[in-house]
């Protein structure tokens, strides 16, 4: 399980971006392109380097006031093993995943106090002095800043105490508990996904029981030119499943029906969306959809994100139940580490990731087949 305290394209003070040519005072830190940037300057001036190019998929002017009509799924009956409630939930999951891969879940069993504590610890991390944050940042090209041992429940605590400081023991305990809760929720969702696809209901739960997970804490400061920039640009998740809790500021948008649609924040719900790896596991039946995060002109925005992927060496292929129906395979077998290498080093994840990944995989690793 991994914990990543991340800095997005306009978030906080450490930015990964090209050298700045603006007259605003920036300071280059090292040759990797990591810059120290005073976010207070976003209230007065937005450097040209942070203005996204115009275009249907990136220009904020393409935003509508329309909200995504994603299902709101009550997991209360599912967690009580009520078969009627499970069937209803699975049908709602199927409807969403055939169209855009987004839905929200309520009565999910996650303690709201734990969610609140996880948000509190975001402030603890992002309020650290600049020199401390620079010492903890990801190295260029790395996906995670911290890789913990699944079998050691104190590994989060040990990391925060040894790397961030003794006073961060509580932070480690909070995120350890949060990630354990997210893993349990992810396995419930995996079972519903299997039922919705008509395959062995335990198939995905068992496949992801030893999952590879990443937790990301995001903070987006307000920006006076919020209509010209994005907190996170348009992308699809290359992972399998994303569990997001967004604060009440909002900003998450999904590109569906040829327009950007907002996902309404709900304090008692988690947003669930599929990634490319699960699209492959469903043989392309379910969608990994383009989405983005907008910054707000007046308010700071925070979110908690938990990404679920298979263990790196597991073979990603649809369940045998699908092959029995004589369905043609849409994608070759691959491992999560293969797709991770492709999206981190060769390709920014978008709506065509798997189509572009397949020829790369076949040409670079022919021995796999």
From TrEMBL:
Pathway: Plant hormone biosynthesis; gibberellin biosynthesis; Hormone biosynthesis. Residues 211-310 form the Fe2OG dioxygenase domain. GO terms for molecular function: gibberellin 20-oxidase activity; metal ion binding. It comes from the Eukaryota. It catalyses: gibberellin A12 + 2 2-oxoglutarate + 3 O2 + H(+) = gibberellin A9 + 2 succinate + 3 CO2 + 2 H2O. GO terms for biological process: gibberellin biosynthetic process. Coiled coil: none annotated. Keywords: Iron, Metal-binding, Oxidoreductase. This is Gibberellin 20-oxidase. Its cofactor is L-ascorbate. It comes from Quillaja saponaria (Soap bark tree). Belongs to the iron/ascorbate-dependent oxidoreductase family. GA20OX subfamily. InterPro entries: DIOX_N (IPR026992), IPNS-like_FE2OG_OXY (IPR044861), IPNS-like_sf (IPR027443), Iron_ascorbate_oxido_reductase (IPR050231), Oxoglu/Fe-dep_dioxygenase_dom (IPR005123). PROSITE patterns: FE2OG_OXY.
């Amino acid at each position: 399980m991994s914990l990543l305290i991340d800095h997005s394209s306009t978030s906080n003070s450490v930015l990964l971006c090209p050298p700045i040519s603006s007259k605003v005072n920036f300071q280059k830190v090292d040759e990797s392109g990591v810059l120290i940037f005073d976010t207070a300057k976003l209230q007065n001036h937005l450097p040209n380097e942070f203005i996204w190019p115009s275009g249907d998929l990136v220009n904020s002017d393409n935003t509508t006031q329309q909200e995504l009509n994603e299902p709101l799924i009550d997991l209360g009956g599912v967690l009580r093993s009520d078969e009627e409630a499970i069937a209803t939930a699975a049908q709602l999951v199927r409807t969403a995943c055939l169209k855009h891969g987004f839905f929200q879940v309520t009565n999910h069993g996650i303690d709201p106090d734990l969610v609140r504590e996880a948000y509190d610890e975001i402030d603890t991390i992002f309020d650290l002095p600049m020199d401390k944050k620079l010492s903890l940042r990801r190295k260029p090209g790395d996906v995670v800043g911290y890789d913990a041992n699944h079998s050691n429940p104190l590994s989060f605590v040990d990391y925060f105490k040894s790397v961030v400081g003794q006073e961060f023991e509580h932070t480690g305990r909070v995120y350890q508990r949060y990630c354990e809760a997210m893993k349990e929720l992810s396995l419930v969702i995996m079972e519903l996904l299997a039922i919705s696809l008509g395959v062995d209901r335990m198939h995905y739960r068992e496949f992801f029981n030893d999952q590879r997970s990443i937790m990301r804490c995001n903070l987006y400061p307000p920006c006076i030119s919020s209509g010209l920039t994005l907190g996170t640009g348009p992308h699809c998740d290359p992972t399998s499943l994303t569990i997001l809790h967004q604060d009440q500021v909002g900003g998450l948008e999904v590109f569906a029906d040829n327009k950007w649609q907002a996902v309404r924040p709900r304090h008692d719900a988690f947003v669930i969306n599929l990634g490319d790896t699960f699209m492959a596991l469903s043989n392309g039946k379910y969608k990994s959809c383009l989405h983005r995060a907008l910054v707000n002109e007046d308010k700071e925005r925070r979110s908690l994100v938990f990404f679920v992927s298979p263990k790196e060496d597991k073979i990603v292929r649809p369940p045998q139940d699908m092959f029995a129906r004589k369905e043609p395979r849409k994608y070759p077998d691959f491992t999560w580490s293969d797709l991770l290498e492709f999206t981190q080093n060769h390709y920014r994840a978008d709506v065509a990731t798997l189509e572009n990944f397949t020829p790369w995989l076949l040409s670079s690793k022919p021995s796999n087949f």
